[in-house]
Amino acid sequence: MIVLGIESTAHTFGVGVITEDEILSNAKESYRPEKGGIHPRKASDFLASRAGSVIRKALTTAGAGMEDVDLVAFSRSPGMGHSLRVGSVAAKTLAYEFNKPLIGVNHCIAHVEIGRRVTGMNDPVVLYTSGANTQVIAFQGGRYRVFGETIDMGIGNFIDSFARYAGIPFPGGPRIEELAKKGKYVELPYVVKGMDVSFSGILTNLRQKLKKHELEDLCYSLQETVFAMMVEVSERALAHCQKKELLITGGVAANKRLREMCRLMCKERGAGFKAPPMDLCVDNGVMIAELGLKMHKAGVKGEVNIDQGERTDEVEIKWR
Ligand code: ATP
Ligand code: FE2
């Protein structure tokens, strides 16, 4: 069975083509604002302008035509309304024009499902750390439950905001990781509330320290502090759910220090630790195809209306 998946929740238009056994292609284009944050209309204009070429590229690389595709999947939730609409229109147009079944999927759960597929981990706790999202997710009682999450901004947005104050261009993560290697510790607030984390106060604190400390020291302390917060919550989720594996995903999973801290924590408690390849950690169409495939095979008739706010634990999981 050949599935074409379309990702379009924020700034990436991604198209993946897969079968049960193989990932055939993973094409994408991402909107990058020259400065500042993402303007919803500009992002969606960009996605719309690239949709056709990304779909063609994914099919060509896969060596398939639309007539070979058995199912069209798209990210229907959660995300920015303007962006979601672009992927939804593209998916519906393909499905209706070529008379293919259509299925809408939840973006966050798609990150989890592609992680399970490519790492072979069956029942991990998932640390999903991206620009807009920071969640610790585990499967319990028929749902993907969010055991801990950010109560304000996502970790990547936090890192990028600090970078912007420090004059580091977007995306700030990789440069901050480099600078951190030469830094030493400066005390920062450590904010874990129950199982949730919060970054906005730390951001304010870092901003106030900008002129008074070396940038390397602030980058080092930022990483040590916020990564420890997320590792703490992940460890407690592992213990509470009695799970034996941790999977990390999202763009911030590129960070070597974060991986090292996760690996150490897991080693100490005898748990496994893995991450998917980076092109499947960031937003991509392959993960949408993978979740569409699993839902379709389980007989789920996925919703096809977009939903900007659907939460991870609102989705009934019939394929596990
Ligand atoms: P989502 O829609 O799932 O929230 P996103 O598109 O906002 O995803 P991603 O593309 O998954 O986010 O990740 C981008 C983020 O990853 C940026 O905030 C970037 O700074 C961060 N990032 C990338 N590389 C690193 C790194 N080495 N260390 C820390 N952060 C990093
Ligand atoms: Fe994402």
Plain-language structure description:
This protein is of the alpha/beta class and 320 residues long. The protein folds into 2 domains: 3-111 and 280-314, 2-Layer Sandwich (Nucleotidyltransferase, domain 5); 123-276, Nucleotidyltransferase, domain 5 (2-Layer Sandwich), CATH 3.30.420.40. Helix content is 44%, strand content 20%. The protein is built from 10 helices and 12 strands. The chain has helices spanning 40-62, 81-98, 107-119, 155-165, 173-180, 200-209, 215-241, 256-268, 278-281, 285-297; strands at 3-7, 12-18, 23-30, 71-77, 102-106, 125-129, 134-140, 143-149, 192-193, 196-197, 245-249, 272-274. The strands form 3 sheets. The protein has a 5-stranded mixed sheet with strand order 3-2-1-4-5, sandwiched between helices. A 5-stranded mixed sheet has the order 8-7-6-11-12, sandwiched between helices. Strands 9-10 form a two-stranded antiparallel ribbon. A hairpin with a 4-residue loop joins strand 6 (125-129) and strand 7 (134-140). Helix 3 (107-119) packs across helix 10, helix 4 (155-165) runs parallel beside helix 6 (200-209) and helix 5 crosses helix 7 (215-241). The protein is globular and about 60 Å long. The site of fe (ii) ion has 4 residues, from helix 3.
